[in-house]
Amino acid sequence: MCDCVNLESSYDGKKVEDIPELASIVDEVRTDFKTWETEYVCKDCGQKWLEKYVSKGHGEVPLTQKI
Q: Domain spans of the chain?
């Protein structure tokens, strides 16, 4: 069974590289430099993940979530 099912559906304030248990099982498949979004896919189950930046307060923070 894949570890994706045991991971949270969203990580506020964290990039994929900040989540070791996720970073080790995904591959980057697409990056949109205009919107600062990167899509990843799980090597085991195919679950898609999105890393993007959202405006909060006076800056932008990363958000990683299942899609």
A: 3-66
Q: Of 10, 12, 7, which Cα lies nearest the Cα of 44?
A: 7
pLDDT in 10s for each residue of the chain, 67 residues: 788 889 999 999 999 999 999 999 999 999 999 999 999 999 999 999 999 999 888 889 999 999 9
CA–CA separation, 57 vs 41, rounded Å? Answer: 30
